[in-house]
Amino acid sequence: MSIEEDKGVFNRGEEFLQVFKKGAEFTQELLKDNERLRYRVLQLEGSQHVPGEYAEPSEENIRLLQRIEELEREKEEILSRIRQVEAENQDFAARYVDIETENNNLANLYIASYQLHSTLDFKEVLQIITEIIINLIGAEEFAIMLLDEKTNELQAVATEGVRREEMPRIDFGSGIIGQVAETGENFFVADVASYSRDLQEPMVCIPLKIKEHVIGVLVIYKLLVQKTAFAAVDYELFTLLAGHAATAVFSSRLYSDSERKLSTIQGFLDLLTK
């Protein structure tokens, strides 16, 4: 949602708040008028009533009673409107909090993506991705696995909360992890709370894609204690993160390979010139 839409929601909430305040003030005035009219009716009835005789209500008393009934109806309508405005204000307040949270997450992702693309060092890129997954996603145990096109296997290049040696090598297309790499589709378990760690079957598996080409996967096995489920914005963050992370990893690997090749060529040239 854009900043202009955020302001629109906030301004509408302010308008509802003003309506609520005016309605409350008007209700107080109606209640005071009601009390005055009732008191006046009692005075008139008292002045006209003679013990032992039936007193016909005067026209003034009838008008006062009718006015009281009208005021009662208006009061109920205003109270009903106030309750409606209160409910709408609560809804707008909740939506405003959600928008603020989403904006903060997107701002954090923007900063994180900037950091990802600020370096071509492969190890630094993996470290930045690890920090993003911990701080932005709220994962405690996870691994970054890349596809070795020579062996057609997925193997862990970075882990958190899990020893890298524990991570199995996964054949492309085999099991949940291999299928995610093959199809390029995200995988999430149905019930996060009941999930128990299985290195072959992660809680979450996200493909790292450059367009339609999968270069690896992100697998998550455990969330931080304070995070018990995924929010709607988390799924968007996964998708955005996967694209940025894949690009950064791919670029840094190409750069590292070219640096090694350049170093080898330079060494070979040095030998020839000597």
Give structural notes.
This protein is α+β, with helices and mostly antiparallel strands and 274 residues long. The protein folds into 2 domains: 112 residues; 142 residues, Beta-Lactamase. It contains 5 helices and 6 strands, in the order αααβββαβββα. It has a 6-stranded antiparallel β-sheet, with helices on both faces. The longest helix is centred in the first third of the chain and has 58 residues. The chain is elongated, with a radius of gyration of 35 Å. The protein starts with a helix and ends with a helix.
CATH class of the largest domain: Alpha Beta
Number of strands: 6
Question: How do the SSEs run, as a string of H and E?
Answer: HHHEEEHEEEH
Number of helical elements: 5
How many separate structural domains? 2
Strand order of the largest sheet: 3-2-1-6-5-4
Backbone structural class = alpha+beta
Main pleated sheet: 6 strands, antiparallel
Q: At the third CATH level, what is the topology name of the largest domain?
A: Beta-Lactamase
Overall pLDDT metric = 79
What is the CATH homology-level superfamily of the largest domain?
Answer: GAF domain
List unreliable stretches of 5+ residues. none
Helical content (DSSP H or I, runs of 4+): 55-70%
Strand content: 5-15%
